[in-house]
Design goal:
Length: 111
């Protein structure tokens, strides 16, 4: 029997190969084992579950109130060249008209 990698999502040992992917029968997660091994460091996902990386462009999905600002950042605002950081607000960026901001990844989607 092959020694297959456990599921990165639920750590189940019951994984099986399907084409070039591995599949977990317990949680239904599918992944490419070559990509998982290359991933290191911070893993940040957007509101839709897509992986984000430094330099990506994102779109804000809901109006975000800003302390001290007269109006919120509107949904649909595009933010370019994000930087991923550790912490609750895991995206650092610059937004035109607002300046430097820290955003939560749950309020953005990959552009």
């Amino acid at each position: 029997m092959e020694n297959l990698a456990p599921c990165p999502k639920c750590q189940s040992e019951l994984t099986y190969p399907m084409d070039n992917l591995l599949v977990c029968p317990e949680c239904g997660h599918e992944w490419n084992p070559e990509e998982i091994e290359e991933e290191t460091g911070l893993v940040v996902k957007d509101a839709n579950g897509n992986l984000l990386a430094d330099g990506d462009a994102v779109v804000i999905v809901k109006d975000l109130p800003v302390k001290g600002a007269p109006k919120p950042i509107k949904a649909g605002t595009k933010v370019k060249s994000i930087r991923l950081v550790e912490g609750d607000h895991n995206i650092d960026c610059k937004i035109d008209g607002f300046g430097s901001m820290a955003l939560k990844s749950e309020f953005v989607k990959k552009a």
